[in-house]
Amino acid sequence: MEIMIAALVLGAMGIVFGLVLTATSKIFAVPSDPRRDAVRDILPGANCGGCGYPGCDGCADAIASGKAPVDACPVCSAEVKAKIAEIMGQETPDASNRKIARVLCQGDCESAKQKFEYQGIQDCNAACTVGEGYKSCKFACLGLGTCVKVCPFDAIHINPETKLPVVDEEKCAACGKCVAACPKHVLELASVKNEVALLCRNTDKLKAVMDVCKTGCIGCQKCAKACKFEAITMVNNLPVIDYEKCRGCRMCAEACPTGAITALKPRQVAEIDQSGCIGCTICAKNCKFGAIEGSLKHPHKVNAACTGCGVCASKCPKKVITMKEATEPRDPKAAVEAAPVKPAEAPKA
Amino acid sequence: MFGKKMFPGGVHPREGVNGKAVNSGNPIRELPAPKRVIIPLSQHIGAPAAALVKKGDTVLMGQKIGEPCGFVSAAVHASVSGKVVSIENVLVASGASVPAVVIENDFQDSWCALSPSDHPETLTAAELQEIIREAGIVGLGGATFPTSVKLTAPEGKSFEMLIINGAECEPYLTADHRLMLEKAADIVDGIHLIMLALDIPKAIIGVENNKKDAIAVLKAAAESVEGVTVCALPVMYPQGGEKQLIYATTRRKVPTGGLPVDVGCVVCNVGTIYAVQQAIREGKPLIQRVVTMGGLVNNPGNFMFRIGTTVESLIEACGGLSPDVVKLISGGPMMGAALPDAAVPMTKGTSGILALGKEAAEMPESPCINCGRCVKACPMRLVPTKLDLLVRGGNYEDAEKCGVLNCMECGACTFACPAKRLLTQSCRTGKRIINANKKAAAQKAAAEATKE
């Protein structure tokens, strides 16, 4: 009998508390954006802080309130980003333009001279306290892996042969921790789309650079002169590439005597679909490299001088020019003179 | 008596076979001027001097070739007469590359017109500072802080006491010891002139007890000057540290982050005092100093060298190195830095060149065993083992809270560590990063302020 009393009392208390709690939760409910909760649910939940907000909750708040873009989370995959975009009712962001960390030094053990042998603490910051680093070039990457230690995504490693860091483009989430940690400032965040990049930060000129490194930028301006799209300007003895203007023709990388400007991707070349080409000569007129041959009203052909800049493809009214990966090296000698528009008519008449 | 003159912590490094005992008996010899001197324009803390000469110019000995840029800066003078061959970036002892004037010696040693002070006893403070600034004198103990700046009391503060550092606590080094023995009268004269000009009533010369002969000579010389006393200090490293020396001689404690002037003191090295005396009495700028060549060399000794002489020429004068040498150190074994090359020039801050063997050069680190010897050794009362962990772990905020900025990089912790941990190097790294971060934050704040 006594046990029944206890059960009843406890049961009654439970019902009362339950009712009170339900009532308070309804009365004092904090209105929350359902999208915020939905976003929070699909974020990774690791609270890494790579987005710059205090954990995933902070990031979800920022995305839901429109303060951060839908792809603010640097870690989550493209699918998750697409889902977040769907929740927010926005278009899926273009993942091909995401940023990655890039190492701006190619001065490996062979090409960069060493001033002395460094025996101290194996850390770039510590090495910098001894004569600004052990490499002769004061801008050079010291390769002791301070960036590797700070990377939360295991995306950066030191190549044991070159003693320089290599970024894993797939894993890199562009969180910027390595960029902030590098005492030599040889890391930067750059678009993964860039076709060419200047991998040197030495602002000295000519002999001063050649004395310390074989792959340094000597400030010769050959790249700026070689660029047909006016995308390169010289600032502080270093070329600055305007990626809005850059078409990825790689002429700068070809002109560079030391390889400081480097092509990051394999060359593309144009291909004209012979059946669709009407011989309008627009492609040939627009080609800056003399890489398109053919006469008016006859299908045109791309020769070995094509640099893959893609101007023809964007100008073709019939959209029959496609870009594909080059199989053979470029031959600048194959270039033809400006497109022979008028003479082509002669034989016909 | 012994306990009274002690600062907390410290270590007692043993002197090497060719260390103090051998070299302290070697009188200062004149190192022959080399064919070519390389005179860096930045031999001091602060802004580098601006070159006053150009390639092809003929210069006289003592002629000013670098003008100080800014308040914390020092002039640079030609140490030989001859022709300027080039002005180029050269590698210096620190491993950095700095602009330097290279002069081809004509071996005439023709001095430029010297202008000794005509009223040395009645100089005003401003006149004294100007003479020192023009003579390019910097702290010759090794820190190379411009002396004219040091002897300028900040507004609202005054110097009550001049403390002269003759402790020379680094093992091997005997340059100051020999200078005190051979130039005691000049040093005391220099002290007297500074006291008169800056109106300082009292001066104490602190000398470690292992230099009894120098103490005796200085005492004899100081008898004639009122207010100058010689204080024998117990042998303990780093007795020559600024704050340690002030505590040992006056029992005053310089506050954390403060300067000696906060307790009314100013500390100068004996070499600096000698240079100041030469500048006032003879009008001679700082173009030479004493260096000790020690360690594994055939004929170690103390040398008066012209600024800009290369380490190679010094080694040559000492009869070459023993084949066992694997490392050359500029400065003492505790605080000195390994030389990147023997072709680097010796500068105003070069107090010693040491040739060390394998056991001194190759010391692999092993893990910390938490024995606490570094804590006991630290004269600044820091906990080096904790600072090491914090700095290596990248936790600079906590390292700053634990006082890493107070570290004076004396090397006592690293010396005391049985695991050979690079504690001092770690603290140095932490200091560098924290200071760089502060500077960046200040710049950012300034940029934002101008924006608004």
Written account of the structure:
- The complex is a heterodimer of chains A (349) and B (452).
- Helix content of chain A is 29%, strand content 13%.
- Chain A is built from 13 helices and 12 strands.
- Chain A has helices spanning 2-27, 34-42, 55-64, 78-88, 124-128, 146-150, 177-181, 206-210, 222-226, 251-255, 282-286, 311-315, 345-348, and strands spanning 99-103, 156-159, 164-167, 187-191, 196-198, 232-235, 238-241, 261-263, 268-272, 292-293, 301-302, 321-325.
- In chain A, the strands form 6 sheets. Chain A has a two-stranded antiparallel ribbon with strand order 1-4.
- In chain A, a hairpin with a 4-residue loop joins strand 2 (156-159) and strand 3.
- The radius of gyration of chain A is 30 Å and the shape is flat.
- Chain A starts with a helix and ends with a helix.
- Residues 339-349 of chain A have low confidence and may be disordered.
- Chain B folds into 2 domains: 1-28 and 114-362, Rossmann fold (3-Layer(aba) Sandwich); 373-451.
- Chain B is built from 15 helices and 17 strands.
- Chain B has helices at residues 20-23, 125-134, 147-150, 175-182, 184-198, 212-222, 242-250, 270-281, 311-317, 358-361, 373-377, 384-392, 396-401, 412-416, 423-451, and strands spanning 28-30, 36-40, 50-51, 58-59, 64-67, 76-77, 82-91, 97-105, 161-166, 202-208, 228-233, 265-269, 288-295, 301-306, 327-330, 337-338, 352-356.
- In chain B, the strands form 4 sheets. In chain B, strands 1-14-13-17-15-16 form a 6-stranded mixed β-sheet. Chain B has a 4-stranded antiparallel β-sheet with strand order 2-8-7-4, with no helix packed on it.
- In chain B, a hairpin with a 5-residue loop joins strand 7 (82-91) and strand 8.
- In chain B, helix 5 (184-198) crosses helix 8.
- The longest helix of chain B has 29 residues, at 423-451.
- Classes of the chains: A alpha+beta (349), B alpha/beta (452).
- The A-B interface holds A 115-116, 119-121, 123, 125-126, 128-132, 134, 136, 138, 149-150, 181, 183, 208 and B 89, 91, 94-97, 337-338, 340-341, 362, 392, 394, 422, 425-426, 428-429, 432-433, 436.
